[in-house]
Amino acid sequence: MVTNTKHSLHQTATMAEYLVYDTMGDGMLGREAMFYLLRNSLVSISGEDDAEESVKDMIEVITKKLDIDRDGKISFQDYKQSVQKQPMLLEVFGQCLPSRGAIYTFSTTFCSNPALKM
């Protein structure tokens, strides 16, 4: 029973992370959505368009890594399977999980059971 609960919590967490990235709300991460998520991750030097091209290159690499069914978009199933194989892909589009400090602050503020605290 514990394993089943742990599995469903993991599945729910993975779905929540995916929904953070699904900015268009269509259940798919297309190139436009990925560009929106990654556009500020690189800085261009002296106003060159290299940063935009680099983001497009990143999108190509990410799509090859995550798009399991090769339809050009990343569905929740694609994302979930990829993250299960390589957990480091969890935050490939940016931070979606709270920092350790935020978790600690939350748990010490709202958890009365010391076993639930970090």
From TrEMBL:
Residue intervals of the EF-hand domain: 54-89
Pfam families in UniProt: EF-hand_7 (PF13499)
Protein name (Swiss-Prot/TrEMBL): EF-hand domain-containing protein
Molecular function GO labels: calcium ion binding
Alphabetical keyword list: Calcium
SUPFAM superfamilies assigned: EF-hand
Annotated signal sequence range: none
Domain of life: Eukaryota
InterPro entries: EF-hand-dom_pair, EF_Hand_1_Ca_BS, EF_hand_dom
Taxonomic classification: Eukaryota, Metazoa, Ecdysozoa, Arthropoda, Hexapoda
